[in-house]
Design brief:
By secondary structure, this protein is of the alpha+beta class. It is built from eight helices and 17 strands. The termini are far apart. 47% of the residues are buried.
Length: 379
């Protein structure tokens, strides 16, 4: 199994009897800057003020059983009695977050391991430690967007028996990371209090999509992430499809600009062979400055997402996120604040392409939208 080293400080622990690499220790750009390009100054900032924590899969086992709700007992109370999060109980019983618990109602308690979130742990790290994908954990526990964990939160994870019963391919999925995972599962746990109350309406991550090949001569997406079906026992955790592109920027959204000039090599949407492009690929010369499309904070800078090469994610106001892939070199680090137009990278041909270009995405929440429909017309 291929090991990845991310650059956002996430430390991921072992899945089953495999040993995943620690990830997310900040690293310099993967390629050295040439003398001709050294004039491009990186936007830097102090590293985030938290300490990466290695996740140990030491959650307490819970056995499958059925409980009967007592008079006046709510989801919080029966969750405490069951020893599992309320969201996981509701998901296991196929109930909506707004469902009321009635006296005498039978509630199925699922098998698994209950993990208590500690300081510095991330959703991706927790999921991988227990041999699950982050999307599986979100669906299994009915987590809310933006999926931020708090210290003391309890999560239901697969049991040792469930992990042992998984196929090699199912186990391998826990080691695959995509843009959606980084957007929702890479933030460290923040201060909070333990709670078993079900959170508000949940939105689950959608299926994983890899970058579409930019041109006919581009190398096929080697090992790109494909939509991974969940085990049959967890069908209720399946993810909905992506939302349709927004027709215009909503009020309150930041002002966006194109990250570089260059014709569109591959547009937004479905591609031959069942592929799908969640953004656009723009032609660029090697080393062309890539600029931030709007003010924001760098959420990720690294090369761990298969197919995208050196990738940057920037979070903006009003729930927007932009992605910049296939870069030759990254000039920002996680946590850096950038302004619209700041140079954040140099374009290149890393990842699944063999000619210089930029893969650019705009997302609001989890929905990828077509930049061509939202940004100023290109010359």
């Amino acid at each position: 199994m291929r090991c990845w080293y991310l650059t956002s400080f996430i430390v991921l622990a072992a899945c089953g009897h495999q040993s995943p690499p620690p990830i997310l220790a900040a690293a310099p750009p993967s390629r050295s800057a040439s003398p001709l390009r050294s004039a491009v100054s990186p936007v830097t900032a102090p590293r985030p003020p938290w300490v990466a924590r290695k996740v140990v899969a030491n959650g307490s086992e819970t056995m499958p059983r059925t409980l009967v709700a007592a008079p006046g007992e709510g989801w919080s109370q029966i969750a405490l009695r069951a020893g599992v999060p309320a969201g996981a109980l509701m998901a296991a019983n196929g109930l909506a977050p707004t469902a009321l618990l009635k006296a005498g109602q039978s509630v199925r308690v699922p098998a698994g391991r209950v993990h208590v979130v500690a300081f510095g742990e991330t959703g991706i790290a927790i999921a991988r430690a227990y041999g699950a994908t982050w999307a599986h954990v979100v669906g299994m526990n009915r987590l809310d967007p933006p999926y931020r964990l708090e210290i003391g939160d309890r999560l239901l994870l697969p049991s040792k028996r469930q992990v042992a019963a998984m196929s090699i391919e199912e186990r391998a999925r826990a080691f695959r990371i995509d843009i959606d995972d980084l957007i929702t599962g890479s933030e460290p746990a923040v201060d909070g209090v333990m709670t078993t109350a079900p959170r508000a309406a949940r939105t689950r991550p959608r299926p994983v999509r890899g970058p579409a090949p930019a041109v006919a001569t581009a190398t096929a997406n080697k090992g790109a992430n494909a939509s991974a079906a969940m085990p049959a026992a967890n069908a209720s955790a399946a993810m909905p499809a992506a939302s349709r592109p927004l027709p215009a920027l909503p009020a309150g959204s930041p002002s966006f600009a194109w990250p570089l000039s260059g014709r569109v090599l591959s547009g937004f949407g479905p591609k031959p062979g069942g592929r799908y492009n969640d953004g656009v690929n723009l032609k660029a010369s090697a080393g062309t400055p890539v600029r931030a499309a709007a003010d924001g904070v760098v959420a990720y800078a690294g090369d761990a997402v298969t197919g995208f090469g050196n990738l940057i994610l920037i979070k903006h106001a009003d729930g927007w996120v932009t992605a910049y892939g296939h870069n030759e070199a990254l000039l920002v680090v996680r946590g850096a604040r950038v302004s619209k137009g700041d140079i954040i990278a140099r374009s290149g041909a890393t990842g699944s392409v063999d000619e210089p270009q930029l893969h650019f995405e705009m997302r609001r929440g989890r929905a990828a939208v077509d930049p061509v429909k939202l940004l100023p017309a290109r010359e």
